[in-house]
Amino acid sequence: MRAAASGDVVLSPGVTAHVVRRMRQDCRADRTRVAVERIVALTGREREVLAMLGAGLTNAEIARRIGVETGTVKVHVGRILAKLGTANRVQAAIIAYEAGLADGTSGVRRA
């Protein structure tokens, strides 16, 4: 009562939990939207490589999966980092995860 009398907003625990849940959902949706917007600039092959990078594959593993040389994968990764404006593979992997290209459990998803 004192808090309300002094002009503070008082919420019940149930309402507070609902507000917090909704804010988390909104933040997650915003991160997904931003990540999807960032990967639009990538070619299909670059998105494919980003998905595998997001799933934690090494350059050699990616090269074997797509049937190219490791050096070619390095070129793709470099272009991906440049287009996404990221400094390293970890940042790119986070974008892949947030965009839904890699799910962290089963690995690569179809884009």
UniProtKB/TrEMBL annotation:
Domain named HTH luxR-type: residues: 35-100
Alphabetical UniProt keywords: DNA-binding, Transcription, Transcription regulation
Record Pfam families: GerE
Annotated GO biological process: regulation of DNA-templated transcription
Molecular-function annotations in GO: DNA binding
Alphabetized SMART domains for the sequence: HTH_LUXR
InterPro entries: Sig_transdc_resp-reg_C-effctor, Tscrpt_reg_LuxR_C, WH-like_DNA-bd_sf
PANTHER family noted in UniProt: DNA-BINDING TRANSCRIPTIONAL ACTIVATOR DEVR_DOSR
Name of the protein in its database record: HTH luxR-type domain-containing protein
Organism: Streptomyces tubercidicus
